[in-house]
Amino acid sequence: MAEPTIQLGGGNWAGKSDNLLGYYKEGERFYKQDFTFSRSTTGTYTDKDGYIQEMPYNLLNYSEDFDNAAWTTLASGETIVSNSVISPDGTLNADTLEGDGSSTNVYVRQDITLNTSTNYTFSIFAKKGTNDFLAISAEGYSGATNTIVIFDINNGSVTTGTANIEDYGNGWFRCSYTIPISTDGVGRFLIYPAYNGTTRGFPTSSDANGQNIYLYGAQLNKGTSAKTYFPTTTRLNMPRVDYLNNSNGSLILEPQRSNLVTYSSDFSDSSWFKLGLGTASTAIVTTDYATSPEGLNNATRLQVDLNGGTTSSDQSLIYDALTVSSGDNTRSIYVKSNDGNTYDVYFGGTLSSYEIKEVTSEWTRIDATRNFASAGTGYLSIGLRGGTGCSDNADILIYGAQVESGSYPTTLINTQGSSVTRNADACNITDVADRIGQTEGTLFCEIDLNNIVSGYSQYVIVISDGSAANRVQFLNNSGNDWQLFITANTISNNINLTTSTSGVGRYKIAIAYKSGDVVYYINGVQKGTSNETFTFSTLTDFDLGQRYDDLFPLLNPINQAQLYNTRLSNSELATLTTL
Question: What residue ranges in 129-208 does DSSP mark as E strands?
Answer without folding.
Answer: 133-139, 147-152, 157-160, 164-169, 172-181, 185-195, 199-200
